[in-house]
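[agent] plan:
  1. take the single chain provided in the ticket
  2. run structure prediction with default settings
  3. attach structure tokens to the ticket
  4. add a short note for the reviewer (M.T.)
[agent] executing step 1
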Amino acid sequence: MSYIYGFEKLKVWQFARAFVKDIYVLSNKFSSTEKYGLVSQIQRAAVSVSSNIAEGTSRTSLKEQLHFVEIAYGSLMETYSQICLAFDLEYISAEDYDGIKNQIDNIAAQLSQLRKSLIDRINQLKDNESSK
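[agent] step 2 finished; step 3 output follows
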């Protein structure tokens, strides 16, 4: 049996992983002139979401974990901005846009919850330190 890493157990990482696959499938339908432009950029931004969630879980410091969650959120918003552009350029349909937007909304909500949880834990540690 193979080892399961902590990040693999996180629902947000699982959703981000599926999101990357969907972004690759969708962006590979873009105009061939975008291969080294928007396609490359949107794929890198989407990969960054799941990668930063994974990297953050490897950190022992809660502040570092929080930092990587915030980077993941930023990459998610970057991906969304690029999806908006792809829609404006008519590279994707309204149906494709809506499907990806729903995934983005879901991942954003989960990252926000994870961020809040980490901030609460950081503040709890600060309170415990100050009461000593």
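[agent] step 4 note for reviewer: The radius of gyration is 17 Å.
[agent] ticket updated
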